[in-house]
Amino acid sequence: MSEHVDTGVVERRFDVTIDGEVVPGIIWAPEHQAGPTPVVLIGHGGAQHKRVAGVISLARGLVRDAGYTAVAIDAPGHGDRVTNPAAADELMALRGRIAAGLRTGSAVSGSPRDADRWAAARTRAVREWSETIDMLGAEGIVAAGRLGYLGFSMGAAIGLPLIAAEPRITVAVLGLSGVPPGASALEAAARRLTIPVLFVMQWDDELISRDDGLRLFDAIGSRDKAMHVHPGGHRNTPLYERRTHIAFFERHLGH
Amino acid sequence: MSEHVDTGVVERRFDVTIDGEVVPGIIWAPEHQAGPTPVVLIGHGGAQHKRVAGVISLARGLVRDAGYTAVAIDAPGHGDRVTNPAAADELMALRGRIAAGLRTGSAVSGSPRDADRWAAARTRAVREWSETIDMLGAEGIVAAGRLGYLGFSMGAAIGLPLIAAEPRITVAVLGLSGVPPGASALEAAARRLTIPVLFVMQWDDELISRDDGLRLFDAIGSRDKAMHVHPGGHRNTPLYERRTHIAFFERHLGH
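^ inputs. structure came back:
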C-alpha cells in the first residue's frame, strides 16, 4: 500500500484479491482520523477508472466538507485491470455512442453478446464491492450502518444490484441510468430497494432516453427517494450538484 | 402597519392599495437590519393566505438561515380579501379535488367559466406583485438584482406570468404546477423565462398529472434550471427540501 497526504486528505492505495485476480482500490480519509467515519463507496462510470477527475473531486469533497471516508475500486475491465490501448478503445466507443445519441436506438450496450458480457461483469463487480466492504469492516474503517454508495452511468448500473443485495449499504446516490420498457434485471433490482435513494438525471442525455430514466426513478421501491433533473447531456450535471449529493449522505449517515 | 418581533425576526404588516382595493401583505426581516437584503417574494397556494403555516416557516427560515427578507401578499380572493365562509368553501372545494384526484380528468380548475375567472385573477395578481415590488424599492427594502420569487401550486401559476413579465425578479423556485398538452398561456410564459428556476414536482400529485408537470419543466426556457421530484401527493413535499430552496436562492442572490 502506498500513502499520500494532500491538504488534510490521506489517499491510500489498496488491493483486494478475489479468485487470484487483484482488484485495485483507493481510500481517501481525513488526516489524523482515529476510528471509523461514515464511508461512501464511489462507482465510476464506463470507460473511466477509480482515479478519474470526477471521482477524486467527489472523494476529496466528502473528506474535507463532511469528514467522511471515500472508497473507489476499478470496475472489471477498467483502470489498472485493462491495458491502455484497450481502455482507449472503450473510451472511443463510448464517445461514439454519445455522439450518435439515441439515434442508434440502443441505450448503452450494443449487441446481445455485449449485453451478456456486461451482465457477467456487473455480477462480478457486485461481488468485488461486497468483498471490499468486508475488508473495510475488518480494518475498522467503517462502522455498521454508516455506509453509502454513489454511482452514475455504469456506476449506477452496478450500484442497483449491489445495493439491492447488500444490506450494509444504507443510502445511495445513483444517476445517468435508465431501464427500457418491460421486465429487466435492473428494474427488478430497483423495485427491491428500501433505502433512501437520490436519483440524478440529465434531461437531454445522449445515452439514456427520458422515458427510460423516469421509468427507473418510478421503479425504485424506496419510500424516501428523490430525483434531481438538469438540462444538458450525459456529462453536463452541474458541479454545484455535488454539494447536494454530499448533503444527502450527511442527512442519512450523520456528520 | 403593525410590527412584531420573535427570536430575531421582525414581522410587519403592510397594505398596497390598487384602484381603491387594499392588498394586505407581510414583510419578515432580520432584527436590527440596516439597509437592503436579498428579498424573496412568496406566493401562497390556492385556498391559502399570506400567513399560512408553510409561508411563515419558509419566511422565517429565509430570515434566520440566510439573513434575507421575505414578503407575502394575499392573492385575489384569498386571505383578508375574502370572508371566512367563502374561504372555507374554497378550501372544501380544493380538498374535494385532491380527494377526487386526477379521476375528474381536470387539473385544477373546473368549468370554462372558472378558467376565465382564474385567468383574470392571475392577471390581477401579477399587477399586485409588481406594485408591491415598487413599494419595496421605494422603501429601500430591496436592492436591484437581488429579488427572487417562490410559489407552489397557485403560487406557481401566478409566478410564471409574473417572472416572465417582471425583469426585477432574477431567480425563482416554482412547483406543484403543470401545463396540459398544446398551447396555453402558462406554457408560453414558461418558454419566455431566462432566469434560473428550480422546479419542484410531486410524483403522485392528485392535482397535476406527471405528464403535465414534466411538460412544464421541459417548457421552461432558462438554461439554468433544475427539477426536484419526490414521491407522494400534492402536500407531501419533504420538509428538508425547504433548506434546498433557500440554498438555491443563496447561490443566485448571495448571502
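The interface with chain A takes residues 203, 214, 217-218, 223, 225-231, 238, 240, 244, 251 of chain B (CB under 8 Å). The radius of gyration of chain B is 17 Å.
thumbs up if we can close this ticket
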